[in-house]
Amino acid sequence: MNMTFPMLPGKDTFAIDLSGNYLKIVHAKVSTIRHQIVDLYDHEIKNISDNDISALISEYFTKRNIKNPVVFCVIPNRITMTKNIEVPSRNIKEVEEIINLQVGRHTPFAKEEIISDYVKIGVYKQTYTKILLIIVNRSVVTRQLEIFKNAKIKVEKMVFCPEAFAVTYTTFLKMNAENSPIVLAHIDDDHTDFIVVSKNKVLFVRSMPIGAEHFLEDKERSGIKFIEQVRLSMETYHGEDIETVPTKLFLIGATEGLQGLEEKLNAELHVPAKEVPYYDHLSIEAEVKRLLVEKTSQISYLNVITAILAEDKIQVNLLPEEIKFKHKLEQRVRQILKAGIHVITIMVILCSLIVAKIYFKSIYINQLDQKLRVIAPKVEQIEKSMTEIRSIKDYLINQGHIINVLAEIYEIVPKNTYFSDIKISETNDFSIKGFSDSMSSVFTFIGIMEESPYFGDVVAKYTSKRKEGENDVAIFEVAGKVIKKADQCK
User: Fold this and answer.
1) Which of 85, 437, 457, 476 has the smallest number of Cβ neighbours within 10 A?
2) What pLDDT sits at residue 489?
3) CATH T-level fold of 2-319
C-alpha cells in the first residue's frame, strides 16, 4: 500500500524495516524544527526472494526521484539476542574492552559470526556498570545490507527498535519521563515487543510470539496467551533484578480492535494498562492519520517512525565495524573537502578584494595622471615664475650688500694697515691682499673678520715680512666667503 503527501522542506530521511513479513518504509522531511511524515509504504514480502525485495525498494526510490537520501534500517528485538549484564568497572573504555572480550560467552556463535553493541543502563553498587548487551547474527545483517546494495541504497545506521522506543516514548505518549520504569508493549503483525524503559533508556526487552494477526484470528484465545506472555516477561524482568517494578503498561502499535484487553491486563496483573493509538500523539495530517488507522489492525508503523524521531539520539548501531569505519572515513573525507572548499572560497574572496583594491587604485591613479597631464603645463609655468621670483627676491635682499661688505672692511681694518687688492667673485669668494707695519695688526684684522657676520671661512693664505727702507713691513693675503644678507637673516 502506498500513501503520498505534500513534500515539506527538509532532509529526506527514510526508515526501512525488512525483517518481518512486510517491507515497511517511512519517508520524512527532517528539519531542525520538526519531523514531518510525507510518505508511507508497505508490501508483503513473506514468500518473495531477496532480489524481489531489492527490486521493490529500488522501484520505490526511482519513482520518487530522491537524491542523497538518509536511510536507517530498523532491527527489531526478535532477530537479536539481548542480555542484561553487570560489568565490574565504571570507566567506559574499560567497559567496552570487557564487553568486547566476553561477548562470545553470551551466544552460541563464534565472535566473528556476530555483531554486538550495548546500552548503558546505569551504575550498580558503586563499582559495576549495568549493560543491556545486544547481539545479532552477522549473516542476518549481511543479508539485509546485500538487499540494500542491490537496490543501490546506502544504509547509514542499523537502528535497534527498542532503543528508538525508549528515546521517543515521551514524545508519542505526550508524557514526561517518569522515575519509575514503564512497559511499552509494541504489537506488530506477528509478534509483540515487551520493552521496559525508564528515563529514555531501554532496560529490558523480550519478544512475545503474539501479534495483530493472532488477535484477528481468535481474539479471546490470543488475549489469554498475550496476558500469559506479559506475565512471563514481567517475571523474567524481576528475575534479572534490573530496576524497580514497572508502574504502568502501555499497549502501542497495531492496537485497533483490541478493546477490552487493557481491562483484562489490569485485572490479571494488577498493573495499570492503557491502550494508546500512537497516531493520536504524533504531529501528522488528518489524511495520514486516516491511512494509518486503516493499517493499525494489521501492522504497526511505529517501529520505523520512532527510528526517524530518534535519529539524532540513538547510540546503538548494529552495522559491521568495517562499514562503520568506511562511513567514518567518508565523513572525514567530506569534512576535509568541505574545509578545503571553505579555504578556497576564503582565498578567492581575499584575492578578489585585493584585485578589486588594485583595480580601483589603478583607476584612481589613472584619473590623477589625467589631471596631472592637464595641470602639468601650468605647474611648469608656476615653477618658472617661482624661480624668477626667488631670483628677484635674492637680488633685492642682496642689493647693495657688496657696498655693506666694503664698508665693514673699512670699519674693521686696523691703523697702519693698507690694502693692495680686494677681489669678490660671483660665487661670493673674496681675497684681500695688503701690508701693515706690524704682523700683530694683520692677525688682529683676521680675527675681527672671523667674528664679523659678513664673512665666513676666513683664512690667512699667507703672511710674510719684507724690508722697505729701514722699516719692516708685514704683507698678507686673506681669503674666505662673503655671507649673503639672506643667509645672515637665517
Assistant:
1) 457
2) 54
3) Nucleotidyltransferase; domain 5 (3.30.420)
